[in-house]
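Listing S7. Sequence submitted for prediction.
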Amino acid sequence: MSSEEPVLSDEQILEFEQQIKDEEAQKVPLVCQDEPISKLEEEFKDNQQFLNKIKNLAQEHDRIRRCRGDGNCFFRAVAFSWYEKAMNDISNYDTNLAKLKESCNLLESGGFQKLAYEDFYEVAFEQFERLGQYRTDPDMLLVNFQSNEISNAIIMHFRFVTSAYLRIHSAEYEPFIIDEMISIDEFCSRNVEAFGRESDHLQIIAISKALDIPIHIVYLDGGMENKATVHEFWPTEKDELERTKTPIKLLYRPGHYDILYQK
């Protein structure tokens, strides 16, 4: 009998590595309690490039809120921020409620059947209606976003809205995926609607325009610059009206998004 250990294929090794990542991710709540930005400084104290950027970042930002790194972190960070802003500001509440109601028309225009989206929409709408109650107990928003059933339903609604926007405006966005040799419909099925798939620029642009929300992403990387690069995504041209909208701010580290709070 041979005592040699079986040789794993590349595919098996990748599956094993992904399993380890998934198990580690499960230890982190879907959305965490916010924490001071100084925690980031502790995390990267041995990386001077990152540390310089974080110290500059701390001049204008004081808190971060981590999201689980499960491939849904972008949509979860955007969704939580969107709900949180509506909870804290009545003008945001009215605007976002109107957009949420309009999203059903967007989904149907994008080819979605009511049967496919109505359960996700109902959860998203029900949680939004409760924001008035949560104002006296803001932790309830976090508690519900830590629930798999509630949080993931909202994430799927946001994914579907993003997909619908891209499908409706396929002529505008299909040229951006020409290298992938697939249609916008295939791209949306594989990369937008699929739970757990990471997001890139197209998803960011589409959700920003679909929900009429500016999204600013601070890129934290190991580059030699002392300040992190900020990419601003605006729903329309950046005019005087756009500047009155408070952006959702996200902190991006390679492959992952968290929520960033300005002072």
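Caption to Listing S7: primary sequence and predicted structure tokens for the chain studied. The mean pLDDT is 90. The beta strands are 35-36, 61-65, 215-219, 229-233, 248-253, 256-262.
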